[in-house]
Amino acid sequence: FIRGEFKSSDSYIAFLGMDLRVIDSGQKSGRRRLTKRGCSEIRRLLHNAAMAASRSAAWKEVYEQHRRAGKATTQALVILARKLARVAFALMKNQDEYVTKGGKLAC
Q1: DSSP string, 37-67
Q2: Contacts of 34 (CB under 8 A, 6+ apart)
């Protein structure tokens, strides 16, 4: 976060290399992949944080919702890691504290 001024959480996610590369052409819909242009160590740490969060009371329902929707385990963890990065961005930008209220997320 200190490395640059980010206008939005989308630009922060792109900086981390967790944005999607879309390869579409005409009627062809290609695979979506992460760009992986940012720091690999930060992506590794976010993945580890997502694995831990998927077992916590605050984030387990988000993870399970994506698994029930048919997402693979890795896909659900990447989605959760991106959400965690967005929460971290909001907390750093607003100089706030992370607080949970009754299992619900509140910033």
Answers
A1: -S-HHHHHHHHHHHHHHTTSTTTHHHHHHHH
A2: 17, 18, 19, 20, 21, 43, 78
Taking only the tens place, the pLDDT of each residue in 59-88 is 999 999 999 999 999 999 999 999 999 988
Angle at CA of residue 44, ends 41 and 47, nearest 5°: 150
pLDDT bracket for residue 104 (50, 70, 90): low
Q: What gap in Å lies between CA 85 and CA 107, rounded to an integer?
A: 13
Structural domain boundaries in the chain = 9-106
DSSP for 64-88? HHHHHTT--HHHHHHHHHHHHHHHH
Tell me the pTM: 0.78
